[in-house]
Amino acid sequence: MGNSYAGQLKTTRFEEVLHNSIEASLRSNNLVPRPIFSQLYLEAEQQLSSLEAGSRADNEEEEEEEEEEEGSESSSPPVSYQVKPPPEGCCTTDGFCQAGKDLRLVSISNEHIEVPSGFLLVGAKSPNLPDHLLVCAVDKRFLPDDNGRNALLGFSGNCVGCGKKGFCYFTEFSNHINLKLTTQPKKQKHLKYYLVRNAQGALTKGSVICWKGAEFRGRQSSTSTCSSTLFQLPESSGLSGSTSSEPLPPANPSAPAGTQPTAAAVDHIPSTAAFSSAVYNGKESPKQQMMKNNLSALTRPSVLGTLTNSGPPKKRHKGWSPESPSSTETWNLQLNPQASNRIKNDGGSLSSLPHSALAGPASSPMVGSGEPVSVPDNLLKICKAKPVIFKGHGNFPYLCGNINDVIVSPLLYTCYRNSQSLSRAYEQYGASTIQPISEEMQLLLTVYYLVQLAADQVPLIEDLEQIFMRSWRESHLCEIRQYQPAAPQPFPQLPGPIAPVSSAQLPWLAGLAASSCNDSVHIIECSYSLAEGLSEMFKLLMEGKLTKTNYVVIICASRNRAIDSCIVITGKYQARVLSESMLSPSDYQKEVNYQLVTGKVETLGSFFSTLCPEGDIDLLLEKFYQENQGHISSSLSASANKPTAVNGAGTAVCTSYEIERHQIRPFQLAVAQKLLSHICSIADSSTQNLDLGSFEKIDFLICVPPSEVTYQQTLFHLWHSGILLELGLEKEHLTKQRVEQYVMKLDAEAQIKFKIFLQNSMQNPHTLFVLIHDHAHWDLMSAMHSLYPQTELSTGLVDRLLNCREVKEAPNIVTLHVTSFPYALQTQHTHISPYNEIHWPSSYSNGVDLYHENKKYFGLSEFIESTLSGHSIPLLRYDSSFEAMVMALGKRFPRLHSAVIRTFVLIQHYSAAMMAVCGLSQMKNYTSVETLEITQNLINSSRQCPSGHGLMVVLRIPCVPLAAVAYERLYNVRERLALEDNFEIILGNPNSGITIGKHFVEQLKIWQKIEDVDWRPQTYLELEGLPCILIFSGMDPQGESLPRSLRYCDLRLINSSSLVRTSLEQELGLAAYFVSSEIHTEKPVVNDVLESDPEKLSSTDNEDEEIATEGSTSEKRSPMKRERSCSHDSASSSLSSKASITAFCTESSPPQALSNSTEETTNNYERQKQKVDKGAQTTISKHLPPVTEQLDMKQNIKSTQVSITSSSSPPFSSSSSSSAPTHNSFILQTSQCSMTKASKQPPIVFLPKLVYDIITSTDSSGLPKSSSLLPYHSVMWASSFRPLMSKMMTCTEQSLYYRQWTVPKPIHMDYNNRNEGRMDTFHPRRLLLSGPPQIGKTGAYLQFLSILSRMLIRLTEVDVYDEEEININIKEESDQYYHQPGDMWPDLETFKKIPFDYTIHDPKYEDASLICSKLQTIDSEDISVSRRQEDMYTCRQTTRMRVSKYAAYNTYHHCEQCHQYMGFNPRYQIYESTLHAFAFSYSMLGEEIQLHFIIPKSKEHHFVFSQPGRQLESMRLPLVTDKSEDYIKSPTFTPTTGRHEHGLFNLYHAMDGASHLHVLVVKEYEMAIYKKYWPNHIMLVLPSIFNSAGVGAAHFLIKELSYHNLELERNRQEELGIKPQDIWPFIVISDDSCVMWNAVEVDCSGDRRSDYTWTERNVSLKQILQHIEATPNVTHYALIGMRKWSSKTNSAEIKEPFSCCHVHDFIMLNVDLTQNVQYNQNRFTCDDVDFNLRVHSAGLLICRFNHFSVMKKQIAVGGQRSFHIKSKVSDNPVSISPAQYICAPDSKHTFLAAPAQLLLEKYLQYHSHRFFPLSLKNYSHPVLSVDCYLNLGPQIAVCYVSSRPHSLNISSSGLTFSGLLLYLCDSFVVASFLKKFHFLKGATLCVICQDRNSLRQTVVRLELEDEWQFRLRDEFQTANAKEDRPLFFLTGRHI
């Protein structure tokens, strides 16, 4: 039995014990029934024929029984019945009462009906109206319960029609409601259904009234088990009759894979059903109804399965006994019915009510009934414990007399009731045969569970629930499988193999089960009522006959009704634990206080003094003090004061002292980024719950529990993190008072600080306030309820503050709950969406270390692991001698609370241990080995370190008064033993700060190098290295962190009776710890040698050993280790560890081997250290947020490196468990300081035995038992029928499990947040961060604030290109300025005089070929130098700019002003747009161009449509003369590709809200995605032939379309009398990365005209465009542009306000003037330069406004980058160099999947020197380029000439060219034109044509062979396949 079973029902145990005992019984007796629970977990293989036989026997028996029971009703002929004639003049219509009022349900279902208290509405059936129910009000006392019993004889009812009351006879009532019966009226026959109100408030037919259970006996045919023969319920009594108005949840969709397919069988009836919104029987309050209705009448069975009756023995069985042979066969073969049809769909469980509700009114089974039972006097005195009586089934008698000496609990009753709930998962399949577990079976399983509990174990209700669950599932395995849709069965309705247990068999079977347990379970059977059994039990107790008995089971199984039962806990230990577990936290404190105040504990003190043979301990202490006062103090104080005496030299000896300051570990950074990504996903969602773009800065408030230490600790972290300075919230000189503004203690003063926080949030709508609720599981009380109204002012404060309306509704407050124990925030009613949960990541995934940490975390799982994996020192232990003494004293002092006893015993042990260490060796017998070990190490620790560093021992005493008693006592003992300078005793009270002695403060100041005179430690972390006992009090830890010098965590006094997961885990969380693990990734070889050394394992609690920090569970474990880890009772621990070490050293291996292994360890260490350092660098850079700057990365890496190197200690100190004790001298050298050693290994934790068993035992899924406990005291399980948690569950799956299976109690703050399956109960701006205790969550959320702040700044900033103009030195300096600096517009005549500047100055073309003109004198040295410098930069220079209010935005920008602009207009349905085709012919393409417009409804006013067919005719254009402040005349076209998210198309703010026409020009394949992101933008969709084209095609089509549209508009408006030249001819072509626009303001107010000053500022695009549009004679300019912004712009550049030069990026194009100048539709690069040259050569004006500039944002995606050149043959993404872009024709070269034009342009950019070798760096002899500009790379200059007649060209008379480039020549290029130009000898020619044929024709037509020499091998083509139409080139040399 013992530990290994830990209260679980084990299959093997079941078979073994029971089967054997039953078999023995069978052999020894006559014929007895075969006991059923040997079959419980065995698949009984019965033949179908035997099943049929069983069902036949059963049915026959039932039918006979029914005849006998019903008598005249069923078998006798009906008695003729004389109906009394109705009174004169009354109504006799069927369905109406005699007063003429309608009673039919269909007529009055929606009317309000007054129902008196205690009455229910029922439906009566009239023989004349078979389809109708008549509504009646009947006193529920005259109605049966769910079992057809307990209905009073007679009748009492009211007429709901006329309101007549007081009908005392059903005959009279039936006459009044006109039933018109021909037989004797019987209420059983005619009152058929309960009536209930549905969710809409209408009265509907509910469940059937269960009269005598007769109607629900299955009438099965003797030939078949088919469902067709089973009794069917009326249709409406199915789910529709369910009283719960809540929708039924799905059958566990989130069930983990590990829970087997039958997990869906688990019941999921939310407890909220009990409180749902349905109105029951005309009453508004379901709670009261539930109380009144015997807790079952509230919800009568809504789905009553097809159950065969196996209720109590039938009447003919009066003499039935277990030995009766006649019945054996029958019950053995019976089908699968369970006792009495107790299907109660009460919406879950009784546990769904608060405990106070369980006391109920008199009709409740909780309250006694029948004859009273007297509790004997002196019961407690005689029994030494208060028996705990758990009510079970049926009625419970009244108790009278000495009732203070017993405790009665409804817990078991609740558990039974819960387990009766049928699983609804199968009802949807019509699984009507699946029945609940019967009462008899429940009781039998309970008995067996109690039988196998060990003597020191306490029954757990969770265990019992799981046993019922498993039993039910396994007994119904066949049915469950049948209703699994995927698994068809050979027999459709095969019943389960389990035979039922009748109530008469039950006592016998229970006795049989209990016979094997050595009388620990005693069965009392009574005949009439539980009263006789209880009386007998009290009698046995008083007589002392139950001394060995822990549990008494009383069963009253009378033959004609359901069983009554109760279970009495008589074991002294069990009764004490269970009774104390029923106290609330406040009652527990009150009880202990009362016992301390009233002096009840003095008896305990006097008892202790009798234990010591030498007399009272105090006398001994006094005597010792007197005798040793002199020398002991001097010797001890000398050792203690050594560090202060030695000064600097002393501290230098022990260099390991270091308080960890704030540093960010990779884990914390990863969590901070996860938090940030969740915030971003909330902002990105379509719900508009968080508009990150509207916030400029961050502010925050951290809420912490009202613990002074936690408060100071948070201030400490906040101060050292530097976050306040980083967020700009505070200035350099930070004071503590300022830091305190950001941390709020949740105490009485919190409301003031919180009010200020709320006011700030309202006053600063552009600040994002983050409300951080740290330790969020603390105080989740509802503000309406309070568990401790008189003690805790702050209770319910979290609910009042954090859940207030202002916080919920504020759009700029994000709430972040941070906790280690999130379970209470993960219920069915939680405010937090599962998508907003962030769980701490695991460090390992598939064995790979994800985050290279230099420390290993030891938490609960690692502590448990240490007990299993054969560590030589298990980290979790219990103290058996302490437990034995406590148990003995508990029996001796039954009236004292066990917390008092435990505390006094432990204080006694510590006192005795201190005395023993100080020389009173006789006191060793009065303490335990564990306490002696703790004390010895504590006192000796400071002596071992030259600086006096020591260990911390935490003594956890939850009860504050007891902690005060312990402190006082230990303080006195320490004084008497003269140890006051050796170690400190600190009383840690949550409500007060830390108080320590002056001597120790001075020591800490020296160690921490603090010079402040008034300094005092305020956090436990600052006690690093102080030898001390910290008495840690308070009911719950409140987030206090402990220092690394913590060595022992003594939790022997924690409240072990309150078994709640959160409570247990947070107590163990105190010991959670980071251990230095420099070499945790690789195991040293030493480990393998020593792994299975038996000598090593024999040493147990040796403090000089090191604990392995690997914690690797995959290691092979030796059998010896297994044995050792069975029980970690350290009482047997050997104190002679040194002996074992020496034995180990001498026997296991020769010294040679040892030295080798240590060397190897050192090498390993060095290697690992390098790895860790590198790892930290790489991981940190990898996990930095995208928003961090280079500088931040460097700093982060640097600080992490520092932390890694500084915290790495001597190589061997933590290498492994086996390398440490290898060399004695080595240990002595490196491990002198106990504190250093303590920081290398986790603390050792001592637990109460009860808690130890729960923590270390596992349930069937492999999880620790603690995981299956109730998660939190203010939540409850939604159903007993829930699956077990699985060991494989992730944190997310655990969260979903709790969200499905737990509901908050009314005292919980989430109780009123009803979910009801809707998402809107989740608060959109609420997040939950959960992670193990002490793992660094504070650092993570502070880092999150930092990166969130940086991201917000980043959101308001953009990277814009910031580059100086290039080729400035080439520009000819001229003293002539054409305009004054302050001129607003150019003068047309003056502007015509300005020469065109051919040179490109845009920095994006720094790698483009120079364009030469005769005006330029080019110094090649200048160019090459500047180029060489530029080569150093791999990417273009950018600068970060704050976004102005006039910026253009991408799709991530959301603000209220743009809602309408972006398509969120209430007038238009989002995405409502139409597609229009628009065709025009263009001769150059030789075909008609078909374009498509997508026009949103809101933008249709910009277009003209034909009236009948709504065909698109044209785009409206304004007039040149139009003037409007709110209108931009020029339509804006933005060509874009690959930037649907990042393109800056939101021009609302840039245009300052002005009306404008904006068209996105997109490729056909991208149309859908652009339309999705920009539903309210007009799209111009290019034809599919341009899908692979470059930007030239878009520009070409924009221009041609615009000209065509201009013509159409001129024609249209000419009809309206408008001249063609008055139509506005300009369009704007803008890049998709133009983000902001600037204007220079020039101040010319100086004395001389040439004096001026200028400033540049951000302006709206509207202002710029309107300014340009207002230019005088604007229609005479062909192209107008502006500068590209640069921070390095100088005065010279803007002195001339207008230039005639190239314009790029953002241009206004006059489509009228440029009608005959086209963009080259084939071009990918430099198409704007090419176009500018064409426009200028056509004699048109290009004007650049130098006072305006455009900023271009750096966008990393889309644009030109979207073209990837790859091989056409393989998908292998091998990079292809530009040299491979061309090949010889007809060669076997790999063809590339890219447009021929792109290959050509890229090839010429990188490799044109192969075609023009003479031109390389020969800037004075450029390449002549005819009619086009192609980029030949920066080292080759070109000279552009146009072949068009009358074109403007540079004078080439003095120029000789080094090459000639002819690109796709048209007919304007003729031989005579080329002969004008002169070429160097050896100059090269390159002719490029569409095909080889035209190449030859061009050579002939231009007579090229006259001057140029060609060779066959000089022909090339782009590396395209034939179908991709490659371009062909021919090269030649000048002769």
List the helices and strands and how they pair.
Layout: H1 2-5, H2 11-28, H3 48-70, H4 105-108, E1 119-126, E2 129-139, E3 157-159, H5 170-176, H6 187-190, E4 191-197, E5 203-208, H7 286-292, H8 325-333, E6 373-375, H9 379-383, E7 388-391, E8 399-401, E9 407-409, H10 411-419, H11 439-451, H12 461-475, H13 477-482, H14 506-514, E10 521-526, H15 530-542, E11 551-556, E12 564-569, H16 572-581, H17 585-597, H18 602-611, H19 617-653, H20 666-684, E13 697-704, H21 708-721, H22 723-726, H23 736-740, E14 743-745, H24 750-763, E15 767-774, H25 797-802, H26 805-809, E16 813-819, E17 837-839, E18 844-845, E19 848-849, E20 855-858, H27 860-868, E21 876-878, H28 880-892, H29 898-917, H30 929-944, E22 952-957, H31 960-976, E23 984-988, H32 998-1007, E24 1028-1033, E25 1046-1050, H33 1061-1069, E26 1073-1076, H34 1085-1090, H35 1094-1098, H36 1119-1124, H37 1137-1148, H38 1151-1183, H39 1190-1207, H40 1224-1230, H41 1234-1238, E27 1244-1247, H42 1249-1256, E28 1275-1277, H43 1291-1301, E29 1302-1304, E30 1326-1330, H44 1337-1355, E31 1357-1361, H45 1388-1392, H46 1420-1431, E32 1438-1442, E33 1473-1482, E34 1487-1496, ...
Parallel strand pairs: 6-8, 7-9, 10-11, 13-14, 13-15, 15-16, 16-30, 17-30, 21-27, 22-24, 22-25, 23-24, 25-27, 37-38, 37-40, 38-39, 43-46, 50-51, 50-52, 52-53
Antiparallel strand pairs: 1-2, 1-4, 2-3, 4-5, 7-12, 11-12, 18-19, 20-26, 28-29, 31-32, 33-34, 34-39, 35-36, 40-45, 41-42, 41-46, 43-45, 44-46, 47-49, 48-54, 53-55, 54-55
Helix pairs in contact: 3-8, 10-12, 11-14, 20-38, 20-44, 21-44, 28-29, 29-30, 29-31, 38-39
